[in-house]
Amino acid sequence: MTGADVLLLALGAVAVGAGVLVVTTKHLVRAGLYLVVCLGALAGDFLVLSAELVAWVQVLIYVGAVVVLLLFAVMLTRAPIGASDDLDRPGWPAALIGGGAGLGLTVLLVDAYRWSSVALPAAGTAERLGEQIFQSWVLPFEVLSVLLLSALVGAIVLSRPDIGRPAPQRPAAPAARVDVEPGGRR
Amino acid sequence: MRPVIPYVTAALLFGLGVYGVLRRRNAVLVLMSVELMLNAVNLILVTADTTARAVLPHSGQVFALFVIVLAAAEIGVGLAIVLQLYRLRATVAVDDVPLTEPTQPVDEREPAVLDAEARR
User: Fold this and answer.
1) In the predicted structure, residue B120 carries a pLDDT above the cut 60
2) B17 pLDDT higher than 70
3) Whether B59 and A113 lie within 8 Å, measured CB to CB
4) Residue of A nearest to B89 (CA)
5) Can you name the residues that pair with B26 across neighbouring β-strands?
6) Average pLDDT for residues A76-84, to the nearest whole number?
7) How far, in Å, CA of B54 to CA of A178, rounded?
8) How far apart are CA B109 and CA B3, in angstroms?
9) How many domains does chain B have?
10) Residue B35 and residue A62: Cβ atoms within 8 Å?
11) Which of A74, A148, A158, B43 is deepest in the core (most CB within 10 A)?
């Protein structure tokens, strides 16, 4: 056991423990905050595994952007602040399938790698990864930029209810609203 | 470095993600569990970069970056869908969503308007 192994064990334990709390906690907001701990521990794992750039991108995009988006969604859907009891379905099939997938993969990987040891490769700095992306992986990179653009446009179209409706319905909608107002007071 | 440690971590995280997706009713929590699964895949890719000697160096890390970009796109569109669902039905519970086509046209007005009509 070298220092890297000890660090990997500790960070992995933190990540798995926080992951357990994400899928079991009764508080919506706390689930998002445990997700931060889990993703941060994984970023530490990436650093130990000499993937520098991936670790910083993980911190920036996951911990910075994705979790903030998720917490925004929690607030916008008017989630209760305290514990809520209706977050879960009955859990036996989920525990069976999830546990089966996790333990099956664990057995497979432990059997494949045993207690073997490898030397860490050269660190994946921004310079080396950038050379690889812009020399060997240019086409996937460009396709991903198109995908990001389409996801952006799709999210805008989805979240604006006035886009994409049939045109003749538009004049009817305000009239219906005006009708409802005095009706509600009656 | 023993590669079995991060591999086992990733396998357990993936199992937790599958459990969360199947167990949770709230759509936002389902999305969080999907993030757990995607991160397990990222950890596998980065670890495989150290154990497998590929022709191109750092392929695993490049793929991990691509997966992070895909996850960002997924969470953007997914949350837009969740918010639209909340606007239409005033709920984010995934098992309240009908899987069949609605027999009557879905009423697309705001929940507040529908509440006012129900009270009348």
Assistant:
1) no
2) yes
3) no
4) A77
5) B93
6) 80
7) 67
8) 54
9) 1
10) yes
11) B43
| CATH number of the domain residue B61 falls in | 1.10.287.3510
Residues B26/B93, Cβ–Cβ less than 8 Å: yes
Min distance B16 CA to chain A CA atoms (Å) = 6
For the ranges A37-51, A168-182, B32-46, B59-73, the lowest mean pLDDT is seen at A168-182
Residue with tokens 């994400």: A22
Residue A90 clears pLDDT 50, i.e. is over it: yes
Q: Please, are residues A156 and B38 in contact by the beta-carbon 8 Å criterion?
A: no
CB pairs under 8 A between A and B: 289
User: CB contact, 8 Å: B77 with chain A?
Assistant: yes
Test mutation, B7, B14, B18, B19, chain A, max A CBs within 10 A: B19
The answer to whether the CB atoms of B15 and A102 lie below 8 A apart is: yes
Q: Rounded CA gap, A68 and A39, in Å?
A: 13
Mean pLDDT score across all residues of chain B: 86
Q: Does domain A1-87 have CATH number 1.20.120.1200?
A: yes
Find the mean pLDDT for residues B90-103: 77
Q: Report helix angle A67-76 to A28-48, nearest 10.
A: 170
Assigned token pair, A65:
């952007």
Q: Which domain holds residue B21?
A: 4-119
The SS3 assignment for B26 reads: strand
Task: Tell me the domain boundaries of chain A.
Answer: 1-87, 125-165
What is residue B93's three-state secondary structure?
Answer: strand
Weakest mean pLDDT among A45-49, A181-185, B45-49, B87-91 = A181-185
Instruction: Give the model's pLDDT for residue B118.
Output: 63
